[in-house]
Amino acid sequence: MNYTLTKNTRNILFGMMGLGVVGLIYAFVAGIEGQRIWSNLLVNGLFFTFIALAGTLFVAIQYAAEAGWSAGFKRVPEAMGQYLPIGGLVILIVLAGSAFHVNHIYHWMDDYLTTEKTTVQDLRTYEEGLQHHATHAEHHDAAAPVAEGHGHDAHAAEATPAADKYESKAKFPQGPEHDLYAANYEKAAPTDSIANPHFDEILDGKSGYLNKPFFFARALIYLLGWIFFTWFFRKRSLAEDLAGDEVKHKKNMNASGWFLVFFAVTSSTMAWDWVMSVDPHWFSTLFGWYVFAGMFVTGLTTITLISIHLKRNGYFQHINENHFHDLGKFMFGISVFWTYLWTSQFLLIWYANIPEEVTYFQDRWENYKVLWVTNLVINFIFPFLVLMSRDAKRNLTFLAVAGVAIICGHWLDVYLMIMPGTVKANYGIGLLEIGMFVGFAGLFGYVTLNALTKASLVAKNHPFVDESAHHHI
Amino acid sequence: MSKKVIYGLFDDEEILLKSAKDLVSKGVRIKDVFSPFPIHGIDPVIGVPRTRLSIGAFVYGATGLSLAWLMMGYMLIMDWPMDIGGKPSQFFYMNLPAFVPVSFEMTVFCAAHGMALTYLIVNRLYPGQQPHNPDNRTTDDKFMVQINTGDNKKTAEEIKSILSSTGAIEITEKEA
């Protein structure tokens, strides 16, 4: 039996997309700064790509583990993976926008920051350019450590209000290496070679990894790799429907092992590249797992919500409360796992209080206090309490409520990963943010549900589909 | 009529499960089933209610969390304010992140030990306890149904005939 996208559902999804367009138009009309719009695009691009990727990951895990229980609804995560090309495109647009300086999300892409020697003329041009890009100037100065040894001295940051924190930095830096510049700036000839005061030692040190060619090559490798495996699994899974030989299943099993290895590496490096390099001075060794945990729980929740939708609409007769119980356990468990990683990251940084690390949380605590606390409540305490009991996990209403909370919560989590690094205190959650989130959710829902209509909802020749129908816990 | 205990021995848990379903559908109340491993799906058939151990786990866990916070709050905030990374320590919440690992460990410790002890006590598995198993073969490769005639309207003969017709390899009977 195939899923039919009813007119009603389609209208709801198009309405959601329409709300996204309205949010965008509103942002332009209201004159919301470009950096915030771009950042929103990145947040939603990442968030929904993560969900799609988690779908493929789920399929791969089930193949690798030869899991039987999930065979009955494996078409749902398969369909979710079909969103990957679109989500990847959105991310690539944002990355390219940064490379061409249309936005300044990845400010390390500014080559001037890693140029050690410059001329007076170049410097003047650069600084005039900064005046035109107020956001960029803020951004850059916040990140340039040369100005006062440690640009992010925790106590200095506490003492000055957020607004002028980034503007009060001296354009004429101190220190012997810059004496020439400081003394001769006014009377220097335009072609005189001087030390670049904007030279960023940390970014220069990281430029072996964080440079544009390598960065874009990696981005393409990740996306093409994920899309390839998604296509590979899906193709063989659909072919299996027609001719039920186990060869295709075995091929998918072997491929799933390769995908998991590929994913293990790329999920971490992807998180460093696309998320952590928004704050390029800052680093956290478990950041990749943290992003992965959020991605996995969001993906599992999406699988659950779509399955609930299918069940409520009369499909998925063979999926009963036992399957939902296991999905609920997954949601509960990975929510706790996410919290574990969140805490592990926060606890050590809070404890050690090293300026170069603690800035990350300082930015969030100063400007995003309410959202930052909400993030923990909605992603840990709420699902922890709601999904703890067995009965709740076997009740579709409870699952749906917790699921919607987890989806919104992890969108907020991605929002909190990106926004403090890109727009500092100039953020907001208004029509733009909500509209774009809902709009992208509509797009994702449409792509996924549309992919569900293309194939039988039950992978009927899957060797474990019978086992799945008899799943009982 | 004297009360009797009837034991039906099976060599396959699937046959036992079918037999138990048959017995129950005919109104026979099964006292217990002995098996070397858990038989999937036997609980609802013989009327064993769902375990309440998970409620116990929550209560023990909450107790552990409260104990941990009480302990740390008293030791590190009230009695001897501890300098944790140079951070203010007037109030409990100020050092809360540092208390997370201990809170977690105490919650798990109390929940795990509470559950294990509850399980052992409820199942009467403590030192000096006499074994209740009627037949040692059920600890190896045989499965046994126990039926008390005192619980049932059917006579011992009727029950025995159902047992033998549903695949019991050995039926024994003794005075209760």
Question: How would you describe what is shown here?
Answer:
- The complex is a heterodimer of chains A (473) and B (176).
- Chain A starts with 6 loop residues before the first helix and ends with a helix.
- Chain A has 2 domains: 13-104 and 206-454, no CATH class; 116-198, no CATH class.
- In chain A, helix 2 (34-64) crosses helix 13, helix 2 runs parallel beside helix 19 (431-453) and helix 13 packs antiparallel against helix 14 (321-352).
- Chain A is mostly helical and 473 residues long.
- Chain A contains 20 helices and 2 strands.
- The model of chain A is unreliable at 135-170 (pLDDT under 50).
- Chain B is of the alpha+beta class and 176 residues long.
- Chain B folds into 2 domains: 4-49 and 133-175, Alpha-Beta Plaits (2-Layer Sandwich); 53-122, no CATH class.
- In chain B, strands 2-3-1-4 form a 4-stranded antiparallel β-sheet.
- Chain B is rod-shaped, with a radius of gyration of 26 Å.
- Chain B starts with a strand and ends with a strand.
- The model of chain B has no long low-confidence stretch (mean pLDDT 90).
- The chains are: A mainly alpha (473), B alpha+beta (176).
- Chains A and B meet through helix 14 of A and helix 4 of B.
